[in-house]
Known about the structure:
By secondary structure, the protein is α+β, with helices and mostly antiparallel strands. The chain has three helices and 18 strands. It has a five-stranded mixed β-sheet with strand order 2-8-7-4-5, with no helix packed on it. Strands 9, 10, 12, 13 and 16 form a five-stranded antiparallel β-sheet that branches. Strands 11-18-17-14-15 form a five-stranded mixed β-sheet, with no helix packed on it. Helix content is about 20%, strand content about 35%.
Amino acid sequence: xxxxxIVLYVSLVILFISIPAHAAFGENxxxxxxxxxSNPHFETEAKxxxxxxxxxxxxxxxxxxxxxxxxxxxxxxxxxxxxxxxxQGKMNGTSDGYFDSGPFKPKDSWSFTFDKPGTFYYFCTxxxxxxxxxxxxxxxxxxxxxxxxxKIEKFPVIQYxxxxxxxxxxxxxxxxxxxxxxxxxxxxxxxxxxxKILSPIExxxxxxxxxxxxxSADGATQFSGDYKYFIFxxxxxxxxxxxxxxxxxxxxxxxxxxxxxPSEVKTDIPIIQPARNIFLSQELQTVFIGPPIALxxxxxxxxxxxxxxxxxxxxxxxxxxxx
Length: 323
Ligand SMILES: [Cu+2]
């Protein structure tokens, strides 16, 4: 066995056994309704009305809201009013009907499982300035599936030509394919009757997505197998075809699904106003409130006890001159 064959074998083994890491389905996230959320004024203890004010989850995940305030609240999908609107007398938000906890007491919690992707705003119907948002993206499984969504239990995926003349083994790495990620496809051909690797052997390789051929090339295995790289731009089901195997009409087809890479998703991340504007209130304290208060205190002290100080110092100078 030549050295390059051993190197290829070792790399194939490493690729076959490596495991992709992706978040599992049906996770839970917790949002707290903080103390002070019922108070719309700047001195409220709450930093945000709901904490965290924006959460990003996968479709199928469950969010639980815990009421840590000392008043009754709701979690109602739709848009509330901002603090400015509330100050001008706008008291009611607009519910969109997707979810509504109804009023729930302090220390109680309420859960909702999101069943569709999108950006969902919500508010409290009792305190409509309380706004939050949940961004739901399409779930990415932690296992590979075929185009119909059936879990691929084992890599490499083994396919036979129609009359079982040829066995073709295909693996790809990472197993769960995301857009924008470099995927390595590795394949080998066997004679299933004699359990023998067929190499060198010619083939035609192509990738088809949504009826469009994305890539095609003729090739021939060297050593024991061959490999190809590909980067998918779009999500959706794909077919990987190995045709004209050994210069015949024999072919095999594999299918899987490409998922939208979460890092490429451009969701309009909602902006939720903080419960208190810390920056503004600190500015106000240091620049606008601080110096006038200090001046006022100084004036009061001076007016009240200034005479005493002046008298004392006069007495001292008089005593000194007397000595
Ligand atoms: Cu409330």
